[in-house]
Amino acid sequence: MRAPSRGAVWRLALKIAVSAGFMVFLLRRTPPAELFRLLRGLEPLTLSAAVVCFFISNVLGALQWHLLLAASGIALTFPLTFRFYFVGLFFNNFLPANIGGDAVKVWDVARVGGGVYQVIAVTLLDRLLGIFSLCLLATMAALYLAPRQPDLPYEWYMAIFVACMVPGIGLYFFKPLGRWLRRAVLRIRPLSLDARMTAIIDHLSPFKGRKALVVRLVWLSILIQALRVTTHILVGLALGMRVDAILLCQFFVFVPLLSLAMIPPITINGLGIREGLGIVLFASAGLAEADAFTLEFLTYVISVAVSLLGFLYFVARRHAPRPGESVSCFIP
Predict the structure, then answer these.
(1) Can you point out the beta strands (E) in the chain?
(2) CA 116 to CA 118: how far, in whole Å?
(3) Cβ 228 vs Cβ 54: under 8 Å
(4) In this predicted model, what pLDDT tens digit does every residue of 97-149 receive, in sequence order?
(5) Nearest CA to 210 among 58, 81, 61, 332?
(6) In a 10 Å sphere around its CB, with 0-12 CB exposed, 13-18 middle and 19+ buried, how is residue 198 labelled?
(7) d(CA 149, CA 155)
(8) Residue 328: pLDDT band by 50, 70, 90 thresholds?
């Protein structure tokens, strides 16, 4: 991989500055004594359950990516897919350049034999499945909450979730939309983006004829996203929060909103945005600022801790198999 350019370094520095600025602002609003009280009262067993829950969600996430790679014609052993997935997870939290963990995963698979555009297409589909499943869960929770809390803007939340699901549904079930997208990318001439994006779309096309596989993957993705929301719930329980049916469903609405808000790459893995928006959203559930801030920051710490397994795999790359030893590509 190439060394980061000067522009990439400046963009990284800007992201760090934005995250730091948000965190300083939030910490100045949150009484330190209240934070220490919450941390001292943590229930370690429940917090450990949150760590295990998040780890399992990522094991299943690696399995989902593995199944997609295999279905596209890239046969890796699952242990190798698992290592690549966790290295990407680590780089999502500790990236020394301006590329994401997904780019690291694509590079890892490509260097042992997978086609670059083929792996990009699979990894893109993996992300789309996650967004679709998370928004589906959120929409169901919002439908339950809307009549019970009419003073909160659940209709607007549902509109956001449906808007995020529609492109994926349309591209899969509505053929004219797919044809329009293909014609649109052919007009993007600079840097040969037309050819590159067409290659990615070509590798997505075979999945349209495998509805049984896609249905199974959607169910798997729903389980993965439910476990990730449950991680937040377990952290809340570890902090001593009383989670009734209403708050439980609010987690399934607010956590997806936080995830969507973190997609724009303006901070380091959403640090600062997650905590700030979490305070705003959970205030409607009656949580104090200190509780909401600690809830989201501790969940982030758990994600960092779990991703450190990827760091161990990354530093042990000299033991990685040579190209061709554990991967083969074939045309199904």
Answers:
(1) 74-76, 327-329
(2) 5
(3) yes
(4) 445 778 888 888 888 877 787 888 888 888 888 999 999 999 999 999 999 99
(5) 332
(6) middle
(7) 11
(8) very low
The per-residue pLDDT for 97 is: 45
Q: What is the CA radius of gyration of the chain?
A: 21
* Pick from 231, 256, 232: nearest CA to 141: 256
Kindly report, residue by residue over 186-227, the tens digit of the pLDDT.
555 554 455 555 556 555 666 666 778 888 999 999 999 999
Cα–Cα dist 182/184, whole Å? 5
Tell me the pLDDT band of 316, cut-offs 50, 70 and 90: confident
State the Cα–Cα distance between residues 69 and 120, nearest whole angstrom. Answer: 10
Please state the domain extents for the chain. 51-316
Scan for tokens 């190439």, then name that residue. 2
Q: Which amino acid is at 27?
A: L
- Following DSSP, what letter does each residue of 167-223 receive, concatenated? HHHHHHH-HHHHHHHHHHHTT--GGGHHHHHHHHHHHHGGGGG-HHHHHHHHHHHHH
Q: In DSSP terms, which residues pair with 327 in a beta bridge?
A: 76
User: What residues contact 42, with CB distance under 8 A and at least 6 apart?
Assistant: 238, 239
Q: What is the mean pLDDT of residues 243-265?
A: 89
**Whole-number mean pLDDT of the chain?**
80
Which residue type does 233 have?
I
Phi (first) and psi of residue 231, to 5 degrees: -60, -45
